[in-house]
Design a protein that fits this description.
Strand order of the largest sheet of chain A: 1-3-2
Number of strands of chain A: 3
Number of helices of chain A: 5
Order of helices and strands of chain A: HHEHHEEH
Oligomer: homodimer
Radius of gyration of chain A: 14 Å
Structural class of chain A: alpha+beta
Largest interface: A-B, 31 and 31 residues
Chain lengths: 91, 91
DNA sequence: CATACAAATAGATACTTGTCAATGTATAAA
DNA sequence: TTTATACATTGACAAGTATCTATTTGTATG
């Protein structure tokens, strides 16, 4: 992962609503409308956030009929661990 | 670390210059003027970036005479690991 | 004290981003 | 096919941020 991709990933994490979205997804897949119920934002804003989270590789999506299901990407943790190794040194 | 602090930490990581600064500090303490040599930014801009990195707890500073020395905080890696645990779940 | 050097602060500006209302697109059901 | 539902896209705007120049503050030295 180069600097630019790392920046994109960190920017994706740098928002309270997106952190809350990740926290909600932590226990498993959820559809957009369910996420929307738990957040105080409008549907277009959620759509915007989900795009950022998916684009940086933190979240996977799966379309099923009208519903869009989101889940934390399997290697999301590894991506962040790599940042520690690359920019902070091993602990 | 609450959401707001996490956001601040991630914002600090979400900039190419600051990533490069961390990379430079990875091998040990450096003074501001040395960092400045390796970056294509002005002194006030570096000062701004260092303030952000210190405020979020990723970087420590130590003043010695006229010089300001910076180093990666001992628990910087732990702070980021905690984000993985909190928002992405254990791997 | 006067000068030089290192870093911080102030103020300005261009750019980015989070948000919403309005609209578009896709899918399912009646 | 018409209607309803779920989500994406567009366009606009306010707030935030990265950067610079100019200035100020702090510290050492002649």
């Amino acid at each position: 992962m180069n600097d630019r991709e790392t920046v994109r990933l960190c920017k994706a994490l740098a928002d309270e609503n997106r952190l809350q979205i990740l926290h909600l997804l932590k226990n498993g897949e959820l559809c957009a409308c369910h996420l929307l119920d738990d957040l105080h934002i409008t549907q277009p804003t959620l759509s915007h956030h989900m795009k950022l989270l998916c684009d940086c590789g933190l979240v996977d999506n799966r379309k099923e009929g009208k519903w869009m299901h989101y889940s934390i990407a399997k290697d999301a943790g590894k991506k962040i661990s790599a940042i520690i190794t690359e920019y902070l040194g091993e602990e």
